[in-house]
Amino acid sequence: MASETLLARITDYASRPNPYPLYAELRAAGPVVRQADGSYLIGTYHEIAALLHDPRMSVDPRTRGEVTHKPPFLRLDDPEHHRLRTLAMRPFGPPHSPGRVDAMRGEIDRITEELLASFEAGRQIDIVDDFAYPLPVTVICRLLGVPHEDEPLFRAWSDALVAAADVRPGQDTETLKAGDQARIEMGGYLVNLAEQRRGSPDDDMLSAFVNEPDPALRLTREELAETAVLLLIAGHETTVNLITNGVLTLLRQPEHLDHLRRDPGLLPRAVEELLRYEPPVHMRERIPHTDIDIAGTTIPAGVSVILALASGSRDPMRFHEPDRFDPTRQDNQHLGFGSGIHLCYGGPLARIEAQAALGALLPYLSTARLLQDPPPYRQNAMLRGPRHLPIQL
Fold first, then answer.
1. DSSP, res 69
2. Residue 44, pLDDT score
3. pLDDT of 62 over the 90 cut
4. pLDDT tens per residue across span 363-385
5. Predicted confidence (pLDDT) at residue 13 exceeds the cutoff of 90
6. pLDDT tens, residue by residue, 323-371
7. What is the C-alpha to C-alpha distance for residues 195 and 57, in angstroms, rounded to an integer?
8. Per-residue DSSP letter, 306
9. What is the CA radius of gyration of the chain?
10. Phi, psi angle pair for 21, to nearest 5°
11. Residue 236: what are its φ and ψ, rounded to 5°?
C-alpha cells in the first residue's frame, strides 16, 4: 500500500525539504508504480528518458477533456506543438535570431551588479526576494518588452499560475479557477502591450510577434496570449529555483563553494550538476494516446502518467554516487530540462543566468551563513524551490 501512495507522500508539503528518500523508495518499488488515484508514477532514468521521446505519450490536457481553450505549445503535441514552438523560436534563437540570448550576457551582468549593490557586510538578505527572483524576471521582461514599472504585476499572476500547474492529487477547484483567471489577465495584458507595437516595433519579442511580415508565420491573438504567458512564466520561474537551490547547495557544502571560488571555470559544469542534483522541475505529466507496455506493466490509454524527473536524475543505474553533489561530474546527461521535443525552450538562457548569478555571488557566499535550514519551501511540488532563503552576510 505504501507504494500506491507515493505520489501523495511526495507532493505532501511535509516532504518538500527532502523528497529524495521517497524517490529512492519509488525506484525500489519498480520502474512503474500504480497510485491509489489511478495514475502511474515512474522514477527510473531509462524509462523516463524513453517516454519523453515516445510519440504515443501526449502532453495535451484536452486528451482527457480537462480544458477547452487551446493550451500553450508546452502542452501541445505535434504537429501543433512543432508549428507554435517554431514560431516562438524565430525572435528568440537560431536560426532566425542566433544572437538574441548571447547578446543578453552584458545586460544580465549589469542587472546582477545592480542587485548586489545592496549586499553589505552584516546585512540579512533573502536570496529569493533580493536576488534570485528579480534577476530572471527583469531579464525575461526586457526580452519580451515589458516596461520595468509593470514588472511587479507578474508576481501575483505567476504565483496563481504555478499553484494551478502542480501535480498534487485532488487539486482544489478554487486554485484551478485562480490560475485560469491569472492566465486570462496576464494574456490580455501582454496582447494589448504587443498591439501597441504593431507598426512601430521595438527590439523585443512582442514586437517581433505582431510585426511578422509573413501571414503564414503569424500567431493568432489567442496563440500570442498563450505563448507570451508561457514565455514569461517559464522564463523566470524555473530560473528562480535553479539559482536558489544552487545557493542553498553551496552553503550546505562549503568545500565545493570554496572550490568554485578558486576555480570559477568550473561554473558551467557546476550548473549542470545542480540541474541534476537539485533541479528546478521535479515532475512532468504525460497521457498515453493508446495502451502502452512499460517494463512489463500495461498502462491504459488516457490515464495520468507522472514522470519523476528528479528521481531519474538520481538513479544509481545511470549516475555514479547520484546523491553526491559533484561540480566536476562528467557524462552528466541529466533530466533537469527534460528531453525530447519538449526539451526546455529557455535552457540556454537559464544556463547563462545561473552561471552569471552564482559566479557573482561566490565572494559573498564564502563568508555568509544560512539563517534557516531547511528554509520555507513553495507549495508547488513540481516546480520545487525555497520560497525564502534568508542568509547573513
1. S
2. 98
3. no
4. 999 999 999 999 999 999 999 99
5. yes
6. 999 999 999 999 999 999 999 989 999 999 999 999 999 999 999 999 9
7. 36
8. E
9. 21
10. -60, -35
11. -135, -30
Element (H, E) at 275: helix 267-277
Confidence of residue 170 (pLDDT cuts 50, 70, 90): low
Distance (Å, rounded) from C-alpha 22 to C-alpha 282? 13
The reported pLDDT for the residue numbered 68 is 64
Is the predicted pLDDT of residue 171 greater than 90, yes or no?
no
Return the biggest CA–CA distance within the chain: 62
DSSP character string of 183-238: HHHHHHHHHHHHHHTTTS--SSHHHHHHT-S-GGGPPPHHHHHHHHHHHHHHTTHH
Orientation of helix 237-252 relative to helix 267-277, angle to 10° = 100
One-letter amino acid for residue 195 of the chain: E
pTM listed for this prediction: 0.94
Instruction: Please state, in angstroms and rounded to a whole number, the distance separating the CA atoms of residues 205 and 200.
Output: 13
pLDDT of residue 128: 96
Backbone φ, ψ for residue 377 (5° rounding): -100, 160
Q: What residues does 369 pair with on adjacent strands?
A: 392
Q: Enumerate residues 6+ apart whose C-beta is below 8 A from 272.
A: 329, 332, 334, 336
Cell 483567471 locates to 181
